[in-house]
Amino acid sequence: MSARGFDHVVWAVRDLGAAPRFMERLGFRVTPRARHPWGTENHLVQLDGFFIEILGIGDETLIPEAAGDTFSFGAFNRDFLKTREGASMLVMESRDPAADRRDFERAGLHVYAPFSFGREATLPDGGIRKVGFDLTFVRNDSDPAHGFFTCLNRYPDTFWSAEYQTHPNGVTALESVVIVCDEPAEQHIFYAAFTGRREMRATSLGITLETPRGRLHLMPPAAFASLYGIDAPEIGPGGSAIAALGLRARDRTHLAQTLREASFDAVEAPEGLVLPAGDHFGLALVFD
């Protein structure tokens, strides 16, 4: 089993006009809106090998329902947004979808039918290029509220853009994904299979797993509040929430100045400068 780094996170929002404007105020470069044939629409924030997919519902009448072993990306995010906004899905990179499937099945995980799609992407100069992806959806029985899949990017040279990856705020890469959960140890089996990393570091603050691109932190609410200086998201018994993304900046002083000039009140915390999730579409952003 080979290790997988984080590929992207799906950030589901109800207002697909306001969320990209929020990210632009933070100093990010945001791609033009793209549309999926199954009714969802998105904007992307590209970093170094990782991207944030800001996703909304465009045309609900186009959304197919899940049936049998077929996972419905559109229906899952539509239903997620009925109760909250925030990070709805975690995605790991793929080099071989068939190998991903074998790994997940050997680990005893439920794997859905293979899914592939392509679309057109708008480049910074206005040009149009084809992009395509092969997705392997898998279920986390310990966290059914979120979606999980691996993604093989079939045309990386046309997908990634140095211009879109250059942000005025100086943010360059993903540092970490933070998940708040009642019992981090109960997530061990799933995340070992999902990331291909069996070695995890356990402390009184939770579990940390190093991937080839970004760290995964699993922690209880009290640990999150201590490390990030803000209230943890509310979770029910046995529940989980993708609470925060940690992002690396070239110059923290410049980043802090960008936030002040945009009238954002960031919280100074042990893990970095934190923008709480409350008024920011359900996902905290942490800058280091």
TrEMBL record:
Glyoxalase-like domain boundaries = 6-188
Record's InterPro entries?
Answer: Glyas_Bleomycin-R_OHBP_Dase, Glyoxalase-like_dom
Output this protein's name: VOC family protein
